[in-house]
Amino acid sequence: MDFLTIAHLITLVFLVATALAAVMAKDLLVAVIIYSTYSFTIALTYLILRAADVAMTEAAVGAGVTTILFLAVLGKTSREEE
Questions:
Q1: What Cα–Cα distance (Å) separates residue 63 from each residue in 4, 50, 53, 82?
Q2: Is residue 55 in a domain?
Q3: By residue range, what is the domain housing residue 63?
Q4: Please, are residues 20 and 55 in contact by the beta-carbon 8 Å criterion?
Q5: Which end of the chain has fewer CB atoms within 10 angstroms, the N or the C?
Q6: What secondary structure letter does DSSP report for 77?
Q7: CA geometry: angle at 27 spanning 62 and 38, to 5°?
């Protein structure tokens, strides 16, 4: 196995772990932070697949703008699940 295959497998395992953690998080702030990590890992996966333009877009929109919007909405609502 070459380095890119190993890196891709590691990121895929991390993607599944962060997706499950985001769904099972009881605190919404923790879920948003985990989602941001998930989105950044997706961007890293695109970079491994040599799609740099898609990776930059995912990092900017997915990990950046979406996280800021989620945090703004979270500031106006309750933080914990009832």
A1: 23, 19, 15, 27
A2: yes
A3: 3-75
A4: no
A5: C
A6: S
A7: 25
Judge if pTM exceeds 0.90.
no
Establish if 81 belongs to a structural domain: no
Helical spans, DSSP H, in the chain: 3-24, 28-48, 52-57, 66-75
> What pLDDT, in 10s, does the model give residues 26-72?
888 999 999 999 999 999 999 999 999 999 999 999 888 999 999 99
What is the distance, to the nearest Å, from the Cα of residue 50 to the centroid of all Cα atoms in its chain? Answer: 19
51-57's contacts with Cβ under 8 Å and 24+ in sequence apart are: none
The total number of structural domains that make up the chain: 1
